[in-house]
């Protein structure tokens, strides 16, 4: 879950697009990383974005670049928030081929550049994926965005390096351990003991590092894996719940609705 390998796997078009139109508690992406570059653009509303050890409140006209392998997460600022925006994931080899290697990108806070970024990003957001030549249009806007990044958003005389610091490395260890053990009863006391912390210290350190509390992240991992199983296997809800660390089907359905906004049965119909 920490390393989003699917955001580094591309087929014909070296870009993936994630359109966001979310409210309240559904504005949430747990800490993760990928080798690809991510352009994150806000159109409406706000959210709380974490990149490494830095937090940002994103509002209507904000945008940022998440460089290769940077840990990042997003969550709602208030339970009444709404957020509309887009994540454009661009293949790192594609970036390296056309712009260069070890390049560090940033937002120069130039209103003209911001307007151009928003215009191109909105064009991507509004693309009809079923329309003829959609992939070609996506490539057109991707190259337009990459040209803007190359011309205005490179920090000169900075050689980019993988940014993992000690705390982030520990966060990686936490999330990898959860990924390996989520299917069983993984209590706060047990994981804290495994990393040789007191439960209270581990709980604080986990939230500071990952951006959400331990049980919220554990439940997200469990529900995510359960959703994948339901889509690929013929399995009952009870068996799926028990196979992914939930004590019973009732708690599974409750948590599924909290994260996906619907029951597992409705989710499968979508």
What attributes characterize this protein structure?
270 residues, alpha+beta, four-stranded antiparallel beta sheet, 10 strands, 44% helix
What percent of the residues sit in helical stretches (DSSP H or I)? 40-55%
The ordered string of helix (H) and strand (E) elements is EEEEEEEEHEHHEHHHHHHH
Residue fraction in strands: 15-25%
The backbone outline, from C-alpha atoms, is globular
- Separation, N- and C-terminal Cα atoms: 23 Å
Summarize the helices and strands and which ones pair or pack:
Layout (H helix, E strand, L loop, with lengths): L14 E9 L4 E5 L4 E9 L1 E5 L2 E5 L4 E4 L5 E4 L6 E9 L1 H7 L4 E3 L5 H15 L8 H19 L1 E6 L6 H16 L6 H7 L4 H12 L3 H19 L4 H7 L5 H12 L3 H6 L1
Helix pairs in contact: 2-3, 5-6, 8-9
Describe this structure as you would to a colleague.
The structure is a single chain. The protein is an alpha+beta fold and 270 residues long. The protein is 44% helix and 22% strand. The strands form three sheets. The chain has a four-stranded antiparallel β-sheet. It has a four-stranded antiparallel β-sheet with strand order 2-7-4-5, with no helix packed on it. Helix 2 runs antiparallel to helix 3 (134-152) and helix 5 packs across helix 6. The mean pLDDT is 87.
Task: Give the structure's gist in a few sentences.
This protein is an alpha+beta fold. The chain contains 10 helices and 10 strands. The radius of gyration is 20 Å and the shape is globular.
């Amino acid at each position: 879950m920490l390393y989003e390998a699917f955001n580094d796997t591309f087929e014909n078009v070296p870009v993936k697009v994630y359109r966001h139109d979310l409210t309240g508690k559904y504005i949430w992406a747990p800490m993760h990383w990928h080798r690809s570059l991510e352009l994150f653009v806000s159109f409406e509303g706000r959210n709380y974005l974490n990149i490494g050890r830095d937090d940002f409140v994103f509002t209507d006209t904000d945008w940022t670049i998440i460089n290769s392998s940077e840990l990042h997460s997003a969550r709602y600022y208030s339970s009444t928030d709404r957020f509309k925006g887009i994540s454009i994931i661009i293949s790192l080899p594609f970036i390296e081929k056309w712009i260069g290697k070890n390049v560090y990108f940033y937002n120069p806070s130039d209103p003209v550049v911001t307007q151009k970024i928003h215009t191109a990003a909105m064009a991507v957001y509004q693309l009809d994926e079923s329309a003829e030549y959609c992939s070609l249009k996506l490539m057109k806007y991707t190259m337009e965005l990459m040209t803007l990044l190359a011309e205005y958003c490179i920090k000169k005389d900075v050689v980019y390096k993988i940014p993992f610091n000690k705390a982030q490395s520990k966060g990686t260890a936490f999330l990898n351990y959860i990924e390996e053990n989520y299917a069983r009863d993984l209590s706060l006391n047990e994981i804290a003991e495994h990393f040789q912390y007191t439960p209270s210290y581990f709980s604080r350190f986990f939230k500071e590092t990952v951006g959400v509390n331990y049980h919220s992240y554990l439940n997200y991992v469990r529900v995510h894996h359960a959703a994948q199983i339901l889509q690929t296997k013929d399995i009952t809800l009870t068996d799926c719940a028990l196979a992914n660390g939930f004590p019973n089907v009732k708690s599974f359905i409750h948590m599924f609705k909290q994260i996906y906004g619907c029951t597992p049965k409705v989710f499968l119909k979508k």
